[in-house]
Structure formats: structure tokens, C-alpha cells
Amino acid sequence: MEKLKLNNSNILYEDALKVHPGGVLGIRRPYNFIRGETPIYFKKGKGSKVIDVDDNEYLDMLCAYGPIIIGYREGEIDNAVIEYIKNNGVCFSLTQPVHNELSNLLNQHIPCCEMSLFVKTGSDATSAAIRAARSYTGKNKIIRCGYHGWHDWCVENTGGVPQSTLDDVLTFKYNDIETLKATIKANPDVAAVILTPINHPLGEKVEFPKNNFLKLVRDVCDENKIVLIFDEIRSGFRVDLGGAQKLYNVTPDLATFGKAMANGYSIAALVGKKEIMQVYEKKAFISATYFENGIDIIASITTINFLKKNNVLLDIKKKGKYILDRLNSIMPKYEGICEYSGGEWMPFFTFYQNKTVNYKLARKNFFTNYLRNKIFIQTMHHSYISYRHSYEDLDNFLNITEDNLKKSIGF
Q1: Which of 276, 309, 342 is the last residue of a domain?
Q2: Could you tell me if 4 and 39 are in contact, meaning their C-beta atoms sit under 8 angstroms apart?
Q3: Does 67 share its domain with 80?
Q4: Paired residues of 58 in beta bridges
Q5: Boundary (domain end) residue, out of 309, 325, 359
Q6: One domain for residues 20 and 83
Q7: Same domain, 282 and 390
Q8: Parallel, antiparallel, or unpaired: how do β-strands 42-46 and 254-257 relate?
Q9: Cys staple from 256: which of 13, 20, 125, 330, with CB 3.0 to 4.6 Å?
Q10: Residue 164 domain-assigned?
Q11: Host domain of residue 383
């Protein structure tokens, strides 16, 4: 299949390199995709489809890295935001009443949520959680597992980060309770353990808890008076309205939510137990000009109510199982070369070194074929399923996946 025409994307990118470091930001840079094959700029989307600046239309399996839980340009949500702007405005010196409405809505659904505060991004929320834990416990060290954002305490690329900050952050492996126990034993001044309850490491397979792992983490934190934080930025309002903590029946002290809670609008939340959250009354500080703007809050309220009214999460899980069942019949022949993970929620293909297959070339060909068949997907990041993905979309994705495997691996 012929390479897509990406002339306008390339022109815009060359212009951007002159005025923006890297042309575009972070994970959206071309080297995180397939260079020369992946568009660099989208101009619009609708439902399950996106259109780039060269008018190529794609079935979108990345969903803006997770926020698009329903679909692009979802009328009920966008219209609620437009009406709110028309009737109320955007930015004020004081909090708007819808703030309380969203807080009460989160209290109804999230097990650990006794109090909440609203921020803009997942990194805002996880960093607010860390500050709260340190303030509450009077301790400094953090033990982390997984990706939690771009701030100094958790960023993967440590350029510009003081060594003193890095010294206070330790790591442990997912599903390895003994590593966590050993790390705590060697470091008695631990304020918090933070982890993604469903593990989604960059470029590696998605992992789910095994052998009662989350409950064991909860027990270890209780025994050592450590604040347990679940980073539910990706799992929240996707695997369950109450997040993975509801799904697995393990309640953390604090949790962060974002992405799917507003179908693309810029809001995230820190929620948790009252006695910890209350450090932000006087003992600790958090504030920003835009954190409590009503438009993102009204988008979140409308999104959550839409999810409930339309049984969206059940629909997504059924669609995810539809994909999983089909792939379970396809993938065994590629064992040891390519693996599918992510269950019903986060589809991801991982390629492994093999004596008979150049895995880097196979991976490049695999994802190139997706793009040339007008399916937008990321090479090192799991995909997502939205409410507006139709079964026709899913069949298209599955048929092309099977064809890609045959062409990329050769049998």
C-alpha cells in the first residue's frame, strides 16, 4: 500500500522547529511514531475518526492518549460547555457553584473520595498527591512504580532535575511485593507509595495485578503508616466509574483522576481521605488561576452523567472483549515474537527479539501498515476504545491487525 501524502504536516513541522523546541511537545514528536509515515498535525475529529492537515481520515485508536472516552466533538458535552460560557463566562476571581456539584459526584462513585480538589493535568494531580502525603506524614521519601507525569519527582528524563530531588524518590517493580517490602525496610522515612493500579509502562506490555498484589501493597502501607496513592489518571472512569480501586476492591488513601473524566477537556482531580486532604486548608499550599474554571468542571459533570446514562463503560468493555476474543485466536502463532496485552481496556502490541525475526523491523512494518490503512495508533503506547467506536470500526482494526501480522512477521 502506498505511503500517505503528508506534505502539509511536514511543512508545518519545519516551520514549528524554528519557533518551538522540538517543533511539537514531548510524546507527540515524530520519533515516538513512525518517522515519515505518521502525520504530525491533526485539524479535526468526529466520533471515532480524526483528520490530519492533509485531509487523510483515520480510525483513531489512541483517543488523544486516553481522554476521548465517548467520541470527538460529542454534542451533549460540547453544547453544555458552550451554554455555560454564553450564560456564565469562563474565568472568575472566585469559585463557581458547579465546583460543589462535581465534588459530590466524585464522592458518590470513588471509594476513597471523601474530599477532592481540581487541577488541570495528571501531573498536577500526582504532584499534589505527593505534597499532601509529605505534609501529612512529615516524611520526604516517595516510592513509585509507573509513569506519573513530568514534574521533578517523577520525570523519566532527569535533565534539569536536582540530584537532591532524585535522592528522595525510590522505585519498585509492579507485582513484586517483596521488592516493595525491602525498599521500605531500608528506608524508614517513606511518606507515600504511588503506583498505577493497572501497570502501563512505556513500550512494554500492560500488566494487571496478580496474587492479590494491590491488597498486599495496602497492607504493607498500613503496617508502616505510609500513605498509599493510586494514580488512576488512565484507569479512572474507564475500567469503572470508581476506578481500578473499585474494580479490585482495594481503597487507597489518595487517588488521582483525569483523562476520561471530561472527554478531552482539561481537568484532573486529587481525591482522598479527609484527614489527608485537609492539609491543603493551611499546612500545605496549592493554587492556580485556572484550576477552578467552570467550563472544564461542567464538561466533567456532563461526561460522567453521560457515562452513567448510556452504560458507556459496559459498552467499552464488551467492545474490548470482542477485540480480545478475536486476537486470542490469532496471537498464539506469533508467540515469542509479538504479544497482545491490555485486556478489554488498553490494547497494546509488544514485539520481542527472536532468532528468526528482526523485531525492530517487524514492529516498524506492523505500525506502518496501520497508518497506510488509515488507522492511527502509537508504537510505544497502548491504545484505547471509545463509545463511538462501532463494531465495523473494530472489525476493520482486527482485519488489518491480522493482515499486518502476516506481512510483518511472515506467517
Answers
A1: 309
A2: yes
A3: no
A4: 50
A5: 309
A6: no
A7: no
A8: unpaired
A9: 125
A10: yes
A11: 7-73+311-409
Query: What average pLDDT is seen over the chain?
Result: 96
State the pLDDT at residue 411.
Answer: 64
Tell me what pLDDT residue 10 has: 96
Same domain as 362, residue 253: no
Number of domains in the chain: 2
**Per-residue model confidence (pLDDT) at position 259:** 97
3-state secondary structure the chain: CCCCCCHHHHHHHHHHHCCCCCCCCHHHCHHHCCCCCCCCCEEEEEECEEEECCCCEEEECCHHHCCCCCCECCHHHHHHHHHHHHHHCCCCCCCCCHHHHHHHHHHHHCCCCCEEEEECCHHHHHHHHHHHHHHHHCCCEEEEECCCCCCCCCCCCCCCCCHHHHHCEEECCCCCHHHHHHHHHHCCCEEEEEECCCECCCCCCCECCCCCHHHHHHHHHHHCCCEEEEEECCCECCCECCCHHHHHCCCCCEEEECHHHHCCCCCEEEEECHHHHHHHCCCCCCCCCCCCCHHHHHHHHHHHHHHHHCCHHHHHHHHHHHHHHHHHHHHHHHCCCEEEECCCCCCEEEECCCCCCCHHHHHHHHHHHHHHCCEECCCCCCCCCCCCCCHHHHHHHHHHHHHHHHHHHCC
142-198, pLDDT tens digit by residue?
Answer: 999 999 999 999 998 999 999 999 999 999 999 999 999 999 999 989 999 999 999
**Residues 134/140, Cβ–Cβ less than 8 Å:** yes
Instruction: Give the residue ranges of the chain where pLDDT is below 70.
Output: 411
Instruction: For residue 52, give every residue at least 6 positions away whose Cβ sits within 8 Å of its Cβ, in sequence order, or none.
Output: 6, 8, 9, 39, 41, 42, 43, 58
Q: Tell me the C-alpha to C-alpha distance, in Å, between residue 62 and each of 48, 203, 263.
A: 10, 14, 13
308-318 residues labelled b (16+ CB within 10 A) or e (exposed): eeeebbeebbe
The pTM score is: 0.96
Q: Residue 354: what pLDDT?
A: 83
